[in-house]
């Protein structure tokens, strides 16, 4: 990993003052030490794709999706079908508990 062209050896911007004494040779409080940082991988650009309600992994309602846009009518139909499925699931669970 090569350092940038603007970085000059012995530059004060790359130096820090030690706050305390540290183990090792010449590591006394107030002494200046050089610091060099190297990047070890690519920088990543992340963006938001999807937001869902509830716990991840469960099927919650989609609050935002970057690629899929739905009208209010489509969202209402999906919400109604989800409510119907949930009602049926609840009825089946109650029936199982009775048996």
TrEMBL record:
UniProt-recorded Gene Ontology molecular function terms: rRNA binding
InterPro entries linked: Brix, PPAN-like
Protein name (database record): Brix domain-containing protein
Source organism of the structure: Paxillus involutus ATCC 200175
The organism's place on the tree of life at top rank: Eukaryota
Example of a GO cellular component annotation carried by this entry: preribosome, large subunit precursor
All residue ranges annotated as the Brix domain in the record: 1-57
GO biological-process terms attached to the record: ribosomal large subunit assembly; rRNA processing
């Amino acid at each position: 990993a090569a350092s940038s062209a603007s970085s000059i050896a012995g530059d004060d911007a790359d130096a820090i003052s030690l706050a305390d004494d540290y183990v090792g040779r010449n590591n006394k409080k107030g002494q200046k030490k050089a610091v060099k940082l190297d990047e070890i991988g690519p920088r990543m650009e992340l963006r938001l794709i999807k937001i869902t309600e509830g716990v991840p992994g469960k099927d919650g309602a989609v609050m935002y999706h970057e690629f899929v846009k739905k009208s209010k009518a489509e969202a209402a139909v999906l919400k109604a079908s989800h409510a119907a499925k949930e009602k049926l699931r609840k009825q089946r669970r109650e029936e199982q508990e009775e048996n």
